[in-house]
Specification:
Largest sheet: none
Order of helices and strands: HHHHHHHHHHHHHHH
CATH class: Mainly Alpha
Distance between the termini: 48 Å
Radius of gyration: 22 Å
Number of domains: 1
Number of helices: 15
CATH architecture: Up-down Bundle
CATH topology: Amino acid/polyamine transporter I
Strand content: under 5%
Oligomer: single chain
Length: 380
């Protein structure tokens, strides 16, 4: 991820407009690749909140064990996503306030688990709990790394609205590297305490709550589960607030169907984009479990991460003096980044492959319509 984010740091330092990966691909490789990247971005950002919605159901099982049964699960997912859909259609201010409220609590359960886990390890004299020895093969390692791509990914969401930042060309590289460092520290500590505290961490459905339960009893598990539920709902809220604005912006620029740019007469929100995005999240959450959606989102991200890495040498030729940050040995890192992405993309199953192919086909149709529409006036 350091290789990929290093490439994105240089590429992002060339732009102050909004668009993120879509913009980089469009400038480097043209409208077709820009639209393909936008569709993959959309797919990745549909599967990610769908995975989070499934996590919400899993952690709700701490209080209601039947939550994962088919009917209760469907009702919970419908209520979660439906409520946020109504809030965001009724106004951006309400959606932003809800998102900010829950987002502020995202890190609380993580820091709580780290502190409680260290407390347990201290009482055990820092000796890790016994774990079963395994000898994973290359396939298992690749699948594990693919899941970590999801954990460390998502930075591209912050790059999309860069036109609203004070100095995006200067600040984006710094923000990316700081985010990578902080995520690495937090995740390493989480992994350390979970593997150290839980006797068989790999088989825990709610590892954060289980660590807290071992530290201070049932009340600890319940408190961390509540914190996790708030965190998951905050993530879901932020995605339903932000992502419809991406398709809205693409439609305004003429690269998406015009209907996505429709604005509600009363509430002045991109209601069509919201009403397309939210049901897709609901559908993916319903048909796929957590790991399935995580893998799909990670693979979709890898596809446009690879495009972002490949854009680095192309933009160096097109804009020789356009970067405020220049990655040392950038062309080499770009090749390595593309190879990493290509290798990990092969970890998808048949169902996920079909969805990826369908997304590529839809993007091609989208491009064909846009190209024909733009060619019409010129021919006339």
């Amino acid at each position: 991820m350091g290789v990929i984010m290093g490439c994105f740091a240089e590429v992002a330092s060339r732009f102050q407009q909004a668009g993120g990966p879509y913009l980089y691909a469009r400038v480097a490789f043209g409208r077709l690749m820009g639209i393909q990247t936008a569709w993959m971005l959309f797919l990745g950002q549909v599967a990610a909140p769908a995975a989070n919605a499934n996590l919400f159901v899993i952690y709700l099982g701490e209080f209601w064990p039947q939550a994962r049964n088919p009917l209760p699960r469907a009702i919970i997912l419908t209520f979660l996503i439906g409520l946020l859909t109504v809030i965001n259609i009724r106004g951006v201010r309400a959606g932003a306030e809800v998102s900010n409220l829950f987002t502020a609590a995202k890190l609380v359960p993580l820091f709580g688990v780290i502190v409680l886990g260290m407390f347990v390890l201290y009482n055990q004299h820092w000796i890790n709990a016994t774990v079963s020895a395994t000898s994973p093969g290359a396939n298992q390692w690749m699948k594990a790394v693919l899941l970590l791509v999801f954990a460390y990914g998502g930075f591209e969401t912050a790059l999309a609205p860069m036109s609203e930042a004070k100095n995006p060309r200067r600040d984006a590289p710094f923000a990316l590297f700081v985010a990578l460092l902080l995520c690495t520290v937090i995740y390493a500590l989480i992994q350390w305490v979970v593997v150290g505290v839980l006797p068989n961490a790999a088989h825990s459905e709610r590892p954060l709550a289980d660590v807290a339960r071992m530290a201070i009893g049932p009340i600890g598990g319940a408190l961390v589960a509540v914190g996790a539920l708030i965190s998951f709902y905050g993530y879901l809220s932020a995605k339903i607030l932000a992502m419809p604005r991406v398709t809205f912006a693409l439609a305004e620029q003429g690269d998406f169907p015009e209907v996505f740019a429709a604005v509600h007469r009363r509430f002045h929100t991109p209601y069509v984009s919201i009403l397309v995005f939210a049901p897709l999240v609901w559908g993916f959450a319903l048909i796929g479990e957590f790991k399935w959606n995580v893998t799909l989102s990670a693979v979709a991200r890898l596809l446009y991460y690879g495009v972002g890495c490949a854009a680095l040498p192309v933009l160096r030729r097109k804009q020789p003096d356009g970067a405020l940050f220049r990655l040392p040995a950038g062309s080499l890192f770009a090749v390595v980044g593309v190879l990493i992405c290509a290798a990990l993309v092969t970890r998808v199953d048949f169902g996920q492959s079909l969805i990826l192919v369908a997304t590529v086909v839809l993007a091609l149709l989208n491009w064909a319509v846009v190209a024909r529409r733009n060619a019409g006036p010129q021919a006339g």
